[in-house]
Amino acid sequence: MIDESLLNSLSNKEKEIFKKGLEDLINQTYVIEDEYKQLNKSYTSLQDFIAQIIEVQPNALWVLDENGEIFLQNSEAKKITGLLKYIDDSSKSTYEIEHKGNFYLVKVAFQEDKTIISATDITEEKRKDRLASMGQVAAHLSHEIRNPIGSVSLLASTLFKKVDIKSKPLVLEIRKAIWRVERIIKATLLFTKSLQPNFQYFYLDKLNEECELAVEQYTFSKDIYFTFDFPHTQIEGDFELLVLVLQNFIFNAIDAIEEDENENGKVSIIYKNEAIYITDSGKEIENENILYEPFKTTKIKGHGLGLALSLQIIKAHSGMITLLEDTKGFKITLQGKV
Fold this sequence. Notes:
By secondary structure, the protein is α+β, with helices and mostly antiparallel strands. Helix content is 48%, strand content 22%. It folds into four domains: 1-38, no CATH class; 61-121, Profilin-like; 123-193; 194-338, Histidine kinase-like ATPase, C-terminal domain (Heat Shock Protein 90), CATH 3.30.565. The longest helix has 44 residues, at 12-55.
């Protein structure tokens, strides 16, 4: 408050000067208030801008305060909140951590009293690296095995011609086993290198004979009824690669029937409505998520490359493989090539 006695003691000129100074002070207060509002608005805008920057980051991002509490985080971080308690933020570092089957690259940094933590999902990269390593090993082993297996195959063919009739079934089983190993080698080498299909026109009914030949080369113990029905329709594709695809599905179907409780089964491969339908009465698929995962299989037999390679081949034919909904089986389309 202004002292009234002091005010009365002032001359008129002094009062005018005092009044003018008071008005200037009030006006300056308004200016400061406006500047504060503008500054607060700019600060809020900056906060929103930083929040948007954090939000558009593809990786999870947390900003912690001096007490280790979450000061700021994006939606990716909210999806994996449980990961945060396993992150060591005691020092600035970069390291990998596994959480619920996924791998994350974690980076920790400090800015004044704040701790900045980012976690990037590198599960797919790790998977690709693992597959690349496994593929290199598999390819090397396949090359090493190919020559001795070729020699054994030649010797088995010679032996089959020379042994007596009673021993021929035994040698025939040896030849089937060798043929299976040769298929695995071929599939492995195809999978580990870039596919280059040789597109030519051929008639689909040629596949009937190839499917029957595949059954003859495979060993199984149950009574299985096979239906192969391809029409005399011309398509463009790589005949050898498509034969390999059908072999994979036939052998998977046989294995599923062998693992099933029933003593017999059915396998059907039919071409209709410009698609190949493959069904069987065998054991149900246990895990659809790893169907096309290389080197993974839920079967007793198999190396885990059959469906992965088949998918590669069908994609090279601009087609796709889908699971049937009403019955156990698959649908293969060869878009643009029929």
